Amino acid sequence: MSAVLSRTKRKQGILHALLPGARVDKNTNKILVHTGTSNEIIKFNVGGSIFETYKSTLSAVPKSPLSSDKFLSKHFRESHRDYFFDRDPAIFHCVLNYFRTGELHLPTSVCGPVVRSELEFWGVDEVDIEECCWSRYATWATTLQDLRKLEEDRKNNLQLGEYPEKDNSSCFREVRRKAWRFFAQPSSSLPAKIYCCTSLSVIFLNIFSFCANTHEAFQVKEISYLDSSVTPVNSTQSVDAVEHSHPVLRYIDVACLVFFSVELLLRFLVSPQKLRFITLPMSIIEFLALLPDLIDNAMLLSPYAKGPTLLWIIDFMKLLRVFRIFRLMRHIPGLWILFYTLKASIKDLLLLLLFVCVGMLISSSLIYFAERVEQKELFSSIPKCFWWSVVTMTTVGYGDMFPKTNWGYLIGTATGISGVLMIGFTVPVLVNNFVLYYNHTTSTISREEERKRLAGDKKSGRFHDFCKIVH
């Protein structure tokens, strides 16, 4: 293949030397020569850079506007005897070389969107870009689309924007606007920063209470006698000890529930778009996290709260309190970017899962036939060997299943090495995506804050100018 390409390049070089503009078509392998035979030299001034070429060279790409005399006449300057274009000279240099050689190469210093707009202006298709430059150009275009999608999702999932400014807004509207800015923008003022720190502290306190409820150090024993109508006389009377969570944890849960409920209600009342606020993923997550606590406290007042089935359902619903950790996304951008990276890299994750499944199936089959005689109970079936394969490929190695035969050692070694390679191929993609999204989001947030600061300075400047005029 490389020999064929080198012969094609050599043939093309000979053609360029004999007849400028002649080239070999990459698809049909035919020699293409444009009909123009004029040796007239024309001069282009593109963005201040001077280019000269034969007029016959411009007819190498008939679909380009440069091959049209009508188009060129619009940009002709009689005083300078040249054609002036206020465009990027670096891209025009590549386009002109494409006219000469039939190969379109791109500079490394120009961004992809600029290349696309320039190629569209000069009438050159992006599919004509050579393979050595296409991967870099495609990466530029893909990165731009990903970053735009990131900004769109970030604003749709975490933000509702500002209140539209009005000249004659009511006092109530101004209060709502300032209150919404207080809740939505922690960096807008000192009280907003204090509220943000308080909200974070309550979140961590609630998470601590959720975990401490299950630890024996925070359990208290309540002794109850089986026959409550009889006062115990001696210690031999039958008693029943029931463990409950410490009352302090109960008070913490109630206080956190009140704080989160009031906060969610106030944010809903002052939100600029109430319907959209309800449908935001973050609002739904916050409500689901509050739901088990609301039901639990409501059931305490109900006479049917002692039913075992109902108590089991309430305990199961308490798992929804784990969603409260997602409230940190509103205050810590890196946490939201982590989940967005996993969502945006779903194809890479599926590819990793496919690699693991293929490796798991192959290695579990091999280890089963290698160890089924020596360790019949542990490696009793191929599905049971799936566990050993996954643990070995991920280099966890719990030690509950391990080979003892020589063939088993060989298969285990190959499984571990293949697992490291498979994970090493895919994990860098996730890391690169996270770094790209994190850097872009942090820079975007800082740029938005700077714009708001400059807008506030302009408003205050106009106010001072107005005061001077009044005085």
TrEMBL record:
Subcellular location per the Swiss-Prot or TrEMBL entry: Membrane
Keywords: Ion channel, Ion transport, Membrane, Potassium, Potassium channel, Potassium transport, Transmembrane, Transmembrane helix, Transport, Voltage-gated channel
Cellular component GO terms held in the UniProt record: voltage-gated potassium channel complex
Main location (coarse class): membrane
Transmembrane segments: 349-370, 407-431
GO molecular function: voltage-gated potassium channel activity
Origin superkingdom: Eukaryota
Ranges for domain BTB: 40-140
Organism: Biomphalaria glabrata
Membrane topology listed for this record: Multi-pass membrane protein
Protein name, entry field: Potassium voltage-gated channel protein Shaw-like isoform X3
